[in-house]
Amino acid sequence: MNQKVRSNYQHLAQGLGLRLDEVGGALYGTWGTYPVAILAPNESYPYSLVVTISAVRAGSPMSREEGRQFRREHKPAVQSLTQQGSLLTMGVKPSGRMDRLQEYLGSALEALTGYLRAAGFHPCCQSCGRTVGTDACSVGGSYVHLCPDCFTAIQQDHTRMAAVREQKPENVVAGLVGAVLGSLVGVLCIILLSQLGYVAALSGLVMAVGTLKGYERFSGRMSRKGIVICLALMLVMTYVGDQADWAIIAMRDLDLDFFTAFRAIPLLRELGAIESANYWTNLVMLYAFVLLGAIPTTLAAVKSQRSAGVVYRAGSTRDA
Question: Core-most of 74, 102, 105, 157, by most CB within 10 Å?
């Protein structure tokens, strides 16, 4: 979280009578009698916020129609309201203006807690479902509402799992095989989109996700070494994908087999059969899109790795 966003969040928390978790970036506290957490599901959009409350009622959870009706009645502040298990999640209209966003949040919180009281919902632990006092807790980077007993149990479980992960050996060779297989999905995406006439950011995202996930699955764990290997492989395989794309065009236009066409790309450029301007423009755009997909995906992987074993109550820096 950058300093400007942090400052804006602090302003929002102060204006709403809540607190800011400096570590995880969520606003948390109590609204009425309901413990709430407010966070941005996607860090790239820090002002697209959701409100979460863990609550249950006797009989049945909130229906989809109830959620739709609530949204219709409380536009524009409320964009959505859903319930999964005991967790109610309300989307709030985003705004870059802090006064407007605070207004939306205050209005949405008042409407939601009023609805929950009227509908007979009681705050509960998101893990065990008991209607007891809860705290907003960060578990592996996600916020959940936990009672003290469940917090302690989950913290102990994550401590054990983190120790197991650290002891698990990293098979770099197997990871490289997995990364190559994953990157081939990205290469296929590059070729298919290009043959359809597009150079799309989607190919970069597919390349990044496929390579990172392939390495992690085959190696057993992800490390800094693995991330460096994956980034280098993405650059190589993006070039391979571009060359394969031109080879398919040459194969079709010059009646060559694929491998002959692939090897002939430099010669075809020298002879002018492939215009250098088009070749380099396409390659540069492709690398740009791959970086657009690879950078946030890699950063997310690093953050996920760092937070995997971290469990703490919002407002506390104690971890597992």
Answer: 105
